[in-house]
Design goal:
This protein is mainly α and 540 residues long. The chain is 51% helix and 1% strand. The chain has 20 helices and 4 strands. The strands form 2 sheets. The protein has a two-stranded parallel sheet with strand order 1-4. Strands 2-3 form a two-stranded antiparallel sheet. Helix 9 runs antiparallel to helix 10 (240-253) and helix 14 runs antiparallel to helix 15. The longest helix is centred in the first third of the chain and has 21 residues, at 111-131.
């Protein structure tokens, strides 16, 4: 149920906030310009991989303390519902490895501290696999490779401990069988080149990672991943470009590292796209516009340098450029079309709802100049295909979920925004069910969230409710939106941003989340106040 109606309080506060919307947007643009790699939370999984495989890297002691500091009282790292498995396996393996190393730095934690944390993690995982091992593991990046690899590494440590660790060999959870990793290792041993989309998780090949055929540095890293780069560097510590980039990356976070070295394209496309779509007045520096336009290659746009192009970022860049008034050809997008939907990467196991929603928006945008004959008909046919696929993916309770985000509020917002643009009768029931689910899932304090009320998920839910109604908002919806806005307005910029986005473990793209809040507040202010002319953007 939604919270008590705070609309009389929210409207004047939103009016005052709206007067500073342009300033809020400018602060976000300034943040992007000051952090060319993007801003994201550090990763337990990735940081632990460096503790295990790169003790020579500066900040080693700080990484060990980060792992100790972020462990939960119950021994786990990360979130519930299976999301803690990958980071806990990674941190536990790294700390067990570290216990046996000589203490060469006074800044390193004691062996006793490390052993206590490692054993808590080991026992927590062992208990979970025994009791909950039949639960489905979340579809985070390369979980089918990473989990068997880390379980094997831990079992090797258990076998060599002579029973002193107090745990028996770990089993694999249901749905994770190890064959995919075994086939990949066999292919690499036979000299087959590793596909570029797997470079980001190169470390899962273990000792083979340093000599895997076909892998090379791109933007001084392997797959834009600190863990993959460190694994490739084994035996190559003097490779200055890669080692130097790892040093720079750990220095930015004071030791810990993120799961991706750069999310520059992703961050800029999402931030600008959300601000412009909500009507927030934005002044776009020419460097940001050039970054988006130059990111589009023959295969589309990647999330950042060193990553392969994908459909999600390609569609988001295309949509953002269309909003700016600089539509680009859709040629690269067609490479991701299949008979039923669009995929993030060719050969993908599980298509993404949010990616298809973004592709639908790109297809519905104004046609770029010089579109070939038949282009409009092709776009209409593809749009109908995506619409039908999205409608089939909706949960019976009314929400959508997604492979790139832990919260259904993100996918539900993306699908709602895209489907409302179709103006087709077939979407009305789906949008009504999404609205009912969103209203029913609001928390008593006005927030929304899977595990707790968060700024990010509340922003998405507000957008879902607003976009589901092109006209005046029904009183119940207006009340829920107002209550959510009061929650957002009461949140401070310094409030923690829980990691909800999928990489190898969960992370938070911090500037993207801030943009979601600004966009939601501005959209709500526009709808709850008297109608006004939509704000325009300008280019410097």
């Amino acid at each position: 149920m939604h919270a008590q109606n705070k609309e009389p309080l929210a409207v004047p506060r939103l009016a005052r906030w709206r007067q500073g919307a342009a300033r809020a947007a400018t602060e976000l643009i300034t943040e992007i310009m000051a952090n060319p790699c993007g801003t994201m939370s550090p990763s337990v999984y990735e940081t632990a991989r460096l503790v295990s495989s790169a003790p020579w890297l500066d900040g080693h002691g700080a990484r060990c303390y980060f792992l100790l500091r972020t462990q939960r009282p119950d021994g786990w790292w990360g979130h519930a519902d299976g999301y803690g498995l990958v980071p806990t396996l990674s941190a536990t393996e790294a700390l067990l490895h570290e216990v046996d190393r000589p203490r060469t730095d006074v800044l390193q934690p004691s062996a006793a501290l490390l052993a206590r944390a490692a054993l808590k993690g080991l026992w927590a995982v062992a208990d979970w696999l025994t009791v909950n091992g039949r639960d489905t593991v979340p579809d985070t990046i390369a979980a089918e490779l990473i989990i068997p690899w880390l379980v094997d590494e831990l079992n090797r440590q258990l076998a060599g401990s002579g029973g002193r660790l107090g745990a028996t060999a770990l089993s694999l959870p249901v749905g994770i069988e190890g064959q995919a990793l075994a086939r990949l290792r066999t292919a690499v041993a036979d000299g087959q080149a590793l596909p570029e989309r797997l470079w980001h998780t190169l470390e899962a090949l273990g000792k083979q990672a340093a000599s895997t055929p076909g892998v090379r540095l791109v933007a001084s890293a392997v797959g834009s991943s600190p863990a993959a780069t460190a694994a490739w560097l084994a035996g190559r510590i003097r490779q200055e470009a890669a080692a130097g980039l790892l040093q720079e990356t750990q220095a930015r976070w004071g030791g810990p590292v993120p799961g991706v070295i750069s999310i520059a394209v992703f961050e800029r496309a999402w931030v600008l796209g959300w601000l412009l779509d909500a009507g927030v007045p934005v002044t776009i520096p020419p460097q940001l516009l050039a970054c988006l336009e130059n990111s589009l290659g023959r295969s589309g746009a990647p999330a950042g340098p060193g990553l392969p192009a994908d459909c999600d970022d390609t569609a988001a860049v295309l949509h953002t450029l269309a909003l700016i008034g600089r539509p680009a050809p859709l040629d690269a997008l067609w490479a991701y079309e299949t008979d039923s939907c669009f995929v993030c990467f060719p050969g993908e196991r599980t298509p993404s709802t949010s990616t298809n929603a973004h592709a639908l928006e790109a297809l519905l945008d104004a046609a770029p100049s010089g579109e070939p004959a038949g282009g409009c008909a092709r776009r209409r046919t593809a749009a109908r295909k995506i619409e039908n696929w999205l409608l089939a993916q909706q949960d019976q309770n009314g929400f959508w979920d997604d492979k790139w985000h832990a919260s259904p509020h993100y996918a539900t917002m993306c699908c709602t925004i895209a489907l409302t643009r179709r103006h087709h009768p077939s979407t009305a029931d789906a949008l009504a069910r999404a609205e009912r689910w969103t209203l029913a899932s609001q928390r008593p304090d006005g927030s929304w969230g899977r595990w707790e009320g968060t700024t990010e998920e509340t922003s998405y839910a507000i957008q879902t409710l607003i976009r589901a109604y092109p006209g005046d908002l029904p009183p119940q919806v207006a009340h829920a939106v107002a209550d959510g806005c009061v929650f957002l307005l009461d949140c401070q910029k310094e409030d923690p941003c829980p990691p909800l986005w999928h990489d190898k473990d969960l992370y938070a793209p911090l500037t993207v989340v801030k943009a979601a809040r600004v966009a939601a507040l501005h959209a709500a202010a526009t709808r709850l106040e008297a109608p006004r002319q939509p704000a325009a953007h300008t280019a410097q």
